[in-house]
Design brief:
With 141 residues, this protein is of the alpha+beta class. It has helices spanning 4-11, 29-41, 100-104, 109-118; strands spanning 17-27, 50-52, 56-60, 75-83, 91-98.
Length: 141
């Protein structure tokens, strides 16, 4: 499991790219199920390059040596997600971060998203987006 505090500290280093996806990308139900299955099959602790958690998908440069032991595997970047929103079976992608290591190897926010979304037949450019409503009126006494 990647330490969020380390990722945030790394975010202040040069070469790190973090982008809030606006409007947020919404992964439809059918694609969401396919992506979750493929990420599980490609888990870093099982010979793959992805570690998926309920709020974070992390992409590494190589598989981990064993359970909980990254043994030098470098984090390429992360995709922050929310399951079950806006509807029960959809996934919202709202922030993507590419580490200094990842940017140094040519990764971008779009390429990191596109790799994970491809498991569901999508890419970031074609992914449906959340509708943005007008902000509420200021409160008046």
């Amino acid at each position: 499991m990647h330490n969020p505090e380390l990722l945030m500290a790394e975010a202040y280093d040069e070469g790190v790219v973090s982008e809030v996806i606006r409007p947020a990308a919404i992964v439809p139900e059918e694609s969401a199920r396919a992506i979750l299955v493929e990420l599980a099959l490609r888990d870093v602790q099982n010979g793959g390059l992805w570690q998926s958690e309920p709020s974070l998908w992390s992409r590494y440069d190589r598989p981990w040596q064993s359970y909980g032991n990254p043994a030098g595997a470098e984090l390429i970047g992360t995709v922050q997600v929310a399951y079950g929103t806006p509807t029960r079976y959809e996934i919202t992608i709202y922030r993507v971060t590419v580490t200094q290591y990842g940017t140094g190897r040519g990764w971008t926010v779009a390429s990191l998203c596109d790799e994970s979304l491809a498991f569901g037949g999508l890419d970031l450019a074609k992914c449906p987006r959340a509708s943005l409503g007008a902000p509420p009126k200021p409160f008046k006494f």
